[in-house]
Amino acid sequence: MRYFISILSAIGFIILSPCTYAQVTANPVLLSPEDSIILGAINQILSIFDLALDTKNFDALIDVYAADAVIDGGGNSSLVGLPAIQNFYRNTFQNASLKTEHTSTTVVGFNFTATTAASTNYADAIYFGPAVLERGGFFFPNQSVIFREKFQNLYVKGSDGAFRISRQTGPQIMSIEGNLDLLPPM
Q: Model's pTM, two decimal places?
C-alpha cells in the first residue's frame, strides 16, 4: 500500500495516511513508509538545528552535522568538520544580546536510500532588537530583521543509526526584511 504524506510546515505536523492513487488528486508526493520515517528524521534534525542556534547550545550541533560534514556557503570558504561548524555558529551567535528565532518552514526530501537522503529546505531567521514592554506584553516595533533562506542538504546515516547532515549548501538568502541596524557586528 502507498501512503500519502501531508506536511503542514507552519506548525510542524506530518500526516501519514494510507490511500490509493484513485483517492488522490492534485498530484501529491507519495512516499513509502521507510521514506516517511527518513523525512521525519530530517525534520527533527532541522528542528534541533533551529533550537541549538536560538538557545546558543552549540554542542547540540553534534546531532545535526556528521563529524566530517562540509558547509558551502557558511562564509568566505567552506567549513569542514563538526568543530569548525560549531566554532562558526558559536562565533556568529554567542553575543548575549542577540535574540533569534530560527524556523524551518518548508522541507522537501528526495533521493532516499537506506543510508542517505537529500533535502531542499527553506527557513526564516529572525533577529530581534530590544523588546518594548507595553500593556503587560513585549513586542518589537521596527525591531527585527527577517532573513528568508534556502538550503540544500545531503544526509548520511551514521553507525549509531541516526541521520545527520553530511553536506550543506547555503544559505541562499531569498529576501531580507526589517531594520538591518539591529544586527550586531559579526
A: 0.77
67, 139, 146 from 142: Cα distances, Å: 40, 10, 11
pLDDT confidence bin for 100, thresholds 50/70/90 = confident
3-state secondary structure string across the chain = CEEEEEEECCCCEEEEEEECHHHCCCCCCEECHHHHHHHHHHHHHHHHHHHHHHCCCHHHHHHCEEEEEEEECCCCCCEECHHHHHHHHHHHHCCCCCEEEEEEEEEEEECCCCCEEEEEEEEEEEEECCCEEECCEEECCCCEEEEEEEEEEEEEECCCCCEEEEEEEEEEEEEEEECHHHCCCC
**Is 120's pLDDT higher than 50?**
yes
Residue 79 pLDDT: 94
pLDDT value, residue 71: 96
